[in-house]
Write a structure and sequence with these properties.
There is one protein chain. This protein is globular. It is built from 4 helices and 7 strands, in the order E-H-E-H-E-E-H-H-E-E-E. The N and C termini lie close together (7 Å). It is an alpha/beta fold. It has a 7-stranded mixed sheet, with helices on one face. The longest helix is centred in the N-terminal third of the chain and has 11 residues.
């Protein structure tokens, strides 16, 4: 699935993504500043969380509550190797059955579940993005 969108269309884009997901593990790819965290904020809202969403750049993982579910939002940009991921217990999160939204997932490729969705974001213009969901 491909979606060309402007940033003011994020709520609609989030709804479209959710309708087309096959798993609860989403891997986000895109350059710095492409809008991964901004899209994740819209997704968390669309999934029904009322929590204040912020980037987990320094905390590595943030947790958000849903009715009868949870969302774990990871920013692995600062993780240097898979050992660091083991040290904060990433496998427990991945095996939890809850939502896992992961920015910069390449460092944990060997730990990923067999099934996941990939979201790639490319900046086309200042306010325009191309999203590909696989």
């Amino acid at each position: 699935m491909e979606i060309n969108y402007n940033l003011d269309q994020l709520d609609n884009v989030a709804e479209q993504i959710i309708k087309n997901l096959k798993t609860k593990t989403l891997l986000f790819h895109g350059n710095m500043g492409a809008g991964k965290t901004t899209l994740i904020k819209a997704l968390i809202k669309a999934l029904g969380s009322h929590d204040e969403v912020s980037s987990p750049t320094f905390s590595i993982v943030n947790e958000y509550e849903l009715t009868n579910d949870k969302i774990y939002h990871f920013d692995l940009y600062r993780i240097k190797d898979i050992e660091e991921a083991y040290n904060f217990g990433i496998e427990d999160y991945l095996d939890s059955g809850y939502w896992n939204l992961i920015e910069w997932p390449d460092v944990i490729d060997d730990l990923l579940p067999n099934k996941f969705d990939i979201i790639s974001i490319d900046v086309k213009e200042a306010n325009n993005r191309l999203l590909v969901l696989k």
